[in-house]
TrEMBL record:
Protein's gene: yndJ
Source taxon at top rank: Bacteria
Transmembrane segments: 6-27, 61-82, 102-120, 132-153, 165-186, 192-213, 225-246, 266-284
Name of the molecule in the record: YndJ family transporter
Keyword line: Membrane, Transmembrane, Transmembrane helix
InterPro entries noted in UniProt: YndJ-like
Region (Disordered): 291-312
Pfam hit, one: YndJ
Length: 312
């Protein structure tokens, strides 16, 4: 990857760590994440950004540690949510459906993978047989595909629990992301399978959003515009992901890493994840203002018990 490409990846990491991650945690609420509105989350992200500006070495690695610790807190929150959901199923009650819970747990767990890669890359170490560019690219992938996409898919599945496409997306995003990670160790063919599953899952989530937005009334215009924009962007951006993964696995021409960062990376980070989270935030505020939602065991976007559920 060229210096310009590396700089762009660093910029995407900065937006993800300082803006996207804290915004997503606010959507989840205090029953899922400790102190989701605390300034500690963006501050930990800012430390990671500063570490990227320094030469590799002990100081750069040390500055990445606060972000790793914050990710460890999220990992623990994900484990707690999964345990609570399993306990609820055994007891016959579940405040949120299994697909939504699976996606949310994925969103909470995977930033720790990216943070571990960041510490290792900044220190100049290898990690599980990977180093350099592989580790550097793992960080934004875990912030946007691991955290952002899974969080969005889970939120859409909660808000449109009767929509089979939304449910399929919430199951598929964790599965696709796990397969892509497995492909790092197994080979390009497995990574291609993961890319296909992840793409189909995100297309399903996007279709559920567009189908809901086409229904008259129900949501603020700004929220609808942001969510539809995110759906259109991810539908196009994932074509590039398929092209790249298929080219790597099957040996035909495909975009290089610099072009993928400038197109697929920017589109997914800003056009999909950021727009979707902002749209969901506006929906949450609208529901709170009209008494249509209250915080639950899962997040602030879930409908209040007994209230009529609107599709996403």
């Amino acid at each position: 990857m060229s210096p310009a490409g590396s700089a762009l990846v660093g910029l995407l990491v900065a937006v993800g760590a300082v803006v996207v991650l804290p915004l997503g945690l606010r959507l989840l609420g205090a029953r899922v994440v400790p102190a989701p509105r605390s300034a500690a989350w963006p501050l930990a992200g800012a430390c990671a950004v500063v570490s990227l500006l320094l030469p590799r070495g002990a100081l750069a690695a040390a500055l990445a540690v606060p972000f790793a610790l914050a990710s460890a807190v999220l990992l623990a929150a994900g484990v707690r949510l999964a345990a609570r959901a399993l306990g609820g199923h055994r007891g016959g009650a579940s405040p949120a459906g299994p697909p939504s819970t699976a996606a949310t747990v994925t969103a909470l767990v995977l930033p720790a993978v990216g943070a571990s890669a960041l510490v290792a890359e900044r220190a100049g170490w290898g990690l599980l047989g990977f180093s350099g560019t592989y580790l550097a690219l793992t960080v934004p992938h875990m912030l946007y595909a691991g955290f952002g996409a899974a969080l969005v898919a889970g939120a859409v599945a909660r808000l449109a629990a009767a929509d089979r496409l939304a449910v399929a997306g919430a199951w598929g995003v964790p599965a696709g992301t796990a397969l892509v990670l497995l492909g790092y160790f197994v080979g390009d063919a497995a990574e291609l399978v993961g890319a296909v599953v992840l793409t189909l899952a995100l297309w399903a989530t996007a279709a559920a959003v567009v189908r809901s937005a086409a229904r008259p009334g129900g949501h603020p215009a700004a929220a609808r515009a942001l969510l539809v924009t995110s759906a259109v962007v991810v539908s196009l951006a994932m074509v590039l992901a398929l092209w790249w993964a298929a080219g790597e696995a099957l040996g035909f021409a495909h975009p290089g890493l610099d072009l993928m960062a400038a197109t697929h990376g920017v589109a997914n980070a800003l056009g999909f994840v950021l727009c979707a989270l902002l749209g969901l935030r506006l929906l949450a505020r609208d529901r709170a203002a009209h008494g249509g939602a209250a915080p639950t065991d899962h997040d602030r976007t879930s409908p209040r018990a007994g209230a009529r559920r609107r599709p996403a």
